[in-house]
Amino acid sequence: MQVTKENMAPIIKIALGLRWDKNFEKKYLNKLLSAGVVKTIYDDNKFMGYLWFDEREEKNDIFINSMQLKKEYQGKGIGTQILKWLESFALKRNKQYLSLLVQVNNHRAINIYKRFGFYEITREQGSIYMVKKTSYMKN
Asked: Which of 67, 72, 81, 96 has the greatest number of beta carbons closer than 10 A?
């Protein structure tokens, strides 16, 4: 939870007007533990971060709830490697899309997603809904 708080508390406050307090953290943790798949990421025995996603049948996609890396692992291409793994997973599951919500002020993440092929669909309540067709679907 600490890595998420460090990365997201300022972004959530500006984009959504929410404070990262104990109540917010409890709700986030309950949701994390009750829905989707969480993959933890390690380098040897050192925790680097995690990926939390849902497989959505009705939208034929894999929805990224959260992808978090500790600060010392950011900017090293690890996020791109995680996205490549997730796209490969989506292809094996016959999913046509990867999708996510990103806060409008999280410019670093937006740039990573755009470089990986995500494109903006809509903007609502401080967030951008982005989608990427999986490689399998490209013509």
From this structure: 67
Burial pattern 55-87, b for ≥16 Cβ within 10 A else e, equals: eeeeebbbbbbbbbbbeebbeeebbeebbeebb
One-letter identity of residue 67: M
Report yes or no: 98 and 80 within 8 Å, Cβ to Cβ: no
Cβ atoms of 62 and 54 within 8 Å: the answer is yes
pLDDT higher at 10 or 107: 107
Q: How far apart are CA 89 and CA 73, in angstroms?
A: 23
* CATH numbers and ranges of domains, the chain: 2-137 (3.40.630.30)
